[in-house]
Amino acid sequence: xxxxxxxxxxxxxxxxxxxxxxxxxxxxxxxxxxxxxxxxxxxxxxxxxxxxxxxxxxxxxxxxxx
Length: 66
Known about the structure:
The chain is an alpha+beta fold.
């Protein structure tokens, strides 16, 4: 099994956004206070990158551009 772990690029903001949405969807309506992840947008992720933030992508044989 081969894993790739690396810093995400700003061009991958949509992948980061979709991953956050999919990861937190099961908690919708279950957390108090609710997670802010579900109110994020792709533009929020892009802005975070521009402000020096980042994200990590880890892949296990799955194309990053699914």
